[in-house]
Amino acid sequence: MTEHAWHLRPLAAEDCDELGRVHMAVWRETYAGLMPADYLAGLSDERCADTWREVVARRDVTGSGGARTLVVVDGEGDLAGFGSAGPSRDEDAPTAWELYAVNLTSRVRGTGVADRLFDDLVGARAATLWVVEGNARAQAFYRRRGFVDEGGRDVHPATGTPEMRMIRRA
């Protein structure tokens, strides 16, 4: 499917069940070999959908401080990924804006949709992001978009998987 067959739109309450399934499928595929297999096997589509419902409810009540989540849909309306960004969550944030996630199913990768998501969520502003250290594909994408290793390190709380913070200055 070409780039033009994919559409971006804001996350809506009715997307949460499907997004829970898509989000966990992307994690199982992307992080295989990077995170423990038992952790990935235990991911719950339903718990993830519940988390997305909380995001929608919080956004509807508080406006979420400018945070945005866009879903990627095909011509039939099926979800194939999402992206999220908003105010930095880090106490020592070197920028005010953070790209929280760009998660795409394999059928949409390489179509240009990741670039569209990035442009809509981050644009030309300075931003940070966290990426699993072994996720070479994501790191290459972010480097192409002007990000460099900022030096910040952390671990994914549930697995101990090393993460690195990347930054792009405006």
TrEMBL record:
Keywords: Transferase. Residues 6-170 form the N-acetyltransferase domain. One of its GO terms (molecular function) is acyltransferase activity, transferring groups other than amino-acyl groups. The keyword Transferase applies. Pfam families: Acetyltransf_1. This is N-acetyltransferase.
